[in-house]
Sequence to fold (248 residues):
Amino acid sequence: MRILVYLKEIPPEEERDLYQDTEGINDSDQNVLMEALNLRDKEGGTVTVMVIGPSTGEKTAREALTWGVDRSVLVLKDGKATGDILESARVLAKAIEAEGTFDVILCGRQAIDGDAAHMAAMTASFLNIPLIAFSKKMEISDGKLYNWCMSKDGTERTECCMPALVLSVKEDNKRRHPNVCDIMSAYAGSTVIPVIKPERNTPEKIIRQVGQYTPGKKHKKGMMLAGKDEQELAGQLRQILTKFTAAK
Fold:
């Protein structure tokens, strides 16, 4: 099963405080990432992340790799055009098509479009696939996608064929955390984030591939840290990352 998660457009730095109080992946998108990774554990397959935004979005793309996703892609978009949701959806849809066919596309609900799911609806329309909005629970059986979604009457069960785009509001996902091996791999100098860049003045042929990265073999050995509290664990992790960076 091929699963894609797209992370929200990154606002320009001068506007960031209006939309989120932290840099990088917000809580809504972290929930979706965990849902995708848990689904991969259950159904098998791969998880690809797409970050749409300016070149500084590479930091968010690398952060996604620390969570253990299989591939992370940056879709370049001028930070000054963050308010153009229609154009963002068009660019994102073209980028998804350039990457190939996915069974499930997941996104969170909160974005800079006013928390109204406009980006998800427009992207699904450009891709010509079903949109499942405000899903609280998702299951896959016999090649079909089943969702339990929020509605004015409580919860409604939906059924559709794949591929489909799911706007998820599930918050009770199995908790996951980045591990040392994935962190080291994500920030290694040899790890290059592939970039998809819109062509100027060619809206119907908007994508060209300008970078490519093929993940190597994953580290087979992990490392367990032990400490009396989170502060001591954080100190140990910082020492490990400092030595790794110095070695590079």
User: Anything to note?
Assistant: Strands lie at 2-7, 46-53, 71-76, 104-107, 131-141, 144-151, 154-161, 164-168, 195-198, 207-209.
